[in-house]
What does this fold into?
Amino acid sequence: MRHPAIAGAFRIALMALLLAVLVTTALIATTREAAAQDLGAIARITGPATLRAEGEALVLDLPLTQPVPVRARLLDAPLRAVLDFRQIDWTGLDAAALTLPAPLAAVRLGQAGGGWSRMVLELAQPMDFATVAMLTDPASGAARLRLRLVPVSAEAFAARVQAGADGAPATLSPLTQGPALGMRPTVVVLDPGHGGVDPGAEREGLREADLMLTFARELAETLRRSGAFEVVLTRGDDSFVSLEARILVARQAGADVFLSLHADALPDGGASGATLYTLADEASEAAAAALAERHDRADLLGGGVDLSGADDVVAGVLMDIARTETRPATDRLADALLGAITAEGLATHRRPRQEAAFSVLKTPDIPSILLEVGFMSSPRDLANLRDPAWRAGMAQALMNGLLAWVDDEAQRRAMRRH
It folds into this structure.
C-alpha cells in the first residue's frame, strides 16, 4: 500500500507538472498570436524607392507590400519633413545610397517607438506637403506611398510648423467631391476575413479564410456584372492583412460601403444563419462579445480624422461626431441587407441584427457592416457555404440589398435638398 505522505507528494508533483504544461501552452499560443499580429502590422519595401525633382517640387515614391497608416508633419532647426508609418521594416532600403535631388539635404530612417516607423527628409529649403497618398493595388494588395513637396516661403513654413505643434493636421491633401451616391457606381469594399497565418474557424478540413475569399470573389463578380458597383477586395489571395490595413484600403478606395465577410464557429455550436453586426461600444449579447474579442487583438483606431495631435478625450469626441452622422446610414444599410436576405428565403440567425465592438467596423465616416454569412459550427450553414448555388443566392440577396439602400439614400438626399 502506498504511504499517504508519498501519495500526497505525488499528487502535488503531478498538479505542478500539469500547471507547467498549461502555462507553457498558453505562452506558446500567445507568442504565435503576437507573431501573427507583428507580421500583419509590418509592411516591407518591395522595390527601389525613388526621389526626384519635378520642376521645383520634390517627389518620393515608396513601394510597399501593403498599405499602412501614415502621418506627416514639418519641423524646423533644421528644416525637416517627417513621415511616421505604422509600421515599416526598412530592410532593403539604404538611405545613404539614395540620390538626393537639390531640395533635399539628407534622408534618415528609423523606428519612432510605439509601433511607428519614421522617415526624416532634411530639406535644403522651406517646403510644404502638396500630396501624401497611400495608393493601393486592389488586385495584389500592394501599396505605394506618393509624397510631393513644393517650395513655400519661410513664413508659410513657420506657420505650418506651428500648426503641427498646436495639433492641427500636417497633411492637407484635398479630397475631391465627386457625384453623389446614386449618380455614379457605388464603391463597395469587400473584406474577406482572416487569411495567411490567421485561418479563422476550421471545420472538416475547411478554413474560414478560404471560404470567405471564395465568396468575396463571387460576390464581387455579381456586383460588377450589374454595372452599378465598383468593387475592391482587401485581400485577393491567402495573405494576412492587418485590421488597420483593411480599414486603410477602404479609405483609399473612397468606399461608400465596407462589408467584412466571416463564417465563424462558436464552441456551443448553437448559432446558425446569417447575422449582421454594426458597431457599438458594448455587444448586444455574450456571443457577439466573444466574436469581437476573437477578431480584435487590439482596439485599432480607424477613420479619416487626423487625431495624432489630440488627447484621448478630444479624439473620442471627434470619432463620436463622425459616427453620429454615419450611424443612421449604417443602420439603414444593415436593415436593407437583412430584408433582402430574408426575401431571398435564406436562413438568418434568431437575432439577425446585432452590435459588437469589432475594430474592423471603426471607420467613422464609412457605413460598415460585419456579416457572418453563416457559422461553420452549424452543419446546415457549413453545407450552405460549400454549395455554389446557395452562395449565388446569398450574393444576389446582398446585391439587391445594396441597390435598395443606394436608392433610399439617394431619395433621402434629394428630399433634404428640397
About this structure: The mean pLDDT is 78. The first helix runs from residue 4 to 41. The helical segments are 4-41, 154-165, 208-226, 243-253, 286-295, 312-343, 379-386, 388-417.
